[in-house]
Specification:
The chain is α/β, with parallel strands linked by helices and 263 residues long. The protein has helices at residues 12-15, 20-26, 30-33, 38-59, 66-78, 87-93, 97-109, 138-145, 150-154, 159-175, 216-225, 254-262, and strands at 82-83, 113-118, 132-135, 180-184, 190-197, 200-206, 229-234, 240-243, 246-250.
Length: 263
């Protein structure tokens, strides 16, 4: 028997919180993060995407035209953090929904995309059943949508979704949960990340706000999912409770503070 260990790129625990903005923009691939400037980093990532599609996937026996897969990957980048819907990319590319589903599974299997599956509980509310899609490395995400600098990032319409994906990957890295999901109902209640740890279920909300407060979604999730605790990750500096089971936690505290919250 063998053990398969998934190797990530650089994380916040390795580069330090002072470099968190650069890590967000450039991603965790070492040659991208360590580039002399943002322009060199962007060029490296664009070249990486091209070579990955034209050479690396073919060496693994995946014989799909690089142009088609690049187009699909770019569509996924523009839908980063959204519920998966095969109909739109299938229609845009002129292929069937099973074909784009195969493309999605390929990019997931090579660790470029994360399909965050929905969690279901036995309640009367209608729950979302399709996965949410994230480009796992934010540097690759930004290269696909053409964001070269922090100024470009801060004016990007999907800025909040990019940050959400960044937070989710860092939390998963820090907590090492058994498995990860999201939860949402058709009435609008949603938790960005739910997972099991030591037999208990926890939740994480990502809020790009100055002072997050308790929301109806959090109250509903606590009741319906029987969550042990919820951590609300935000870009501020202060840590404070907003409910007996909900705590607002600075993003910079992820490397050292998650185990304290989730055990």
């Amino acid at each position: 028997r063998i053990e398969i260990v998934a190797m990530d790129g650089f994380g916040l625990d390795e580069v330090g919180t002072r470099k968190s903005s650069s890590l967000w923009l450039r991603g965790g691939f070492p040659l991208s993060f360590l580039a002399k400037n943002d322009a060199d980093s962007f060029i490296w990532r664009k070249s990486f995407i091209q070579m990955f599609l034209e050479r690396d996937l073919r060496q693994q026996g995946i014989d799909i035209p690089a142009l088609s897969l690049h187009r699909f990957w770019t569509m996924l980048a523009h839908s980063h953090g959204q519920i998966w819907n095969a109909a739109d990319p299938a229609c845009s590319m002129g292929v069937t929904q099973p074909t784009v589903r195969r493309y999605l599974d390929i990019l997931t299997g090579v660790f470029m995309v994360r399909q965050l599956q929905p969690w279901h509980v036995n309640i009367k509310k209608r729950q979302v059943k399709a996965p949410k899609i994230y480009i796992r490395d934010t540097g690759i995400l930004h290269a696909l949508v053409g964001l070269k600098t922090e100024s470009d990032l801060f004016t990007y319409p999907r800025y909040g979704a990019s940050w959400e994906g960044y937070v989710i990957e860092e939390v998963i890295r820090a907590v090492e949960p058994d498995d990860v999901y999201f939860w949402a109902t058709h009435n609008g209640a949603e938790i960005d990340l739910v997972f099991m740890k030591n037999g208990r279920m926890y939740g994480v909300e990502c809020k790009r706000q100055d002072a997050p407060a308790m929301t109806p979604s959090m109250k509903i999730a606590l009741d319906d999912l029987k969550l042990e605790r919820i951590a609300v990750i935000y870009p501020g500096k202060h840590r404070y409770p907003i409910h007996k089971k909900v705590e607002v936690v600075p993003f910079d505290a992820i490397p050292g503070g998650m185990k304290e919250i989730f055990g």
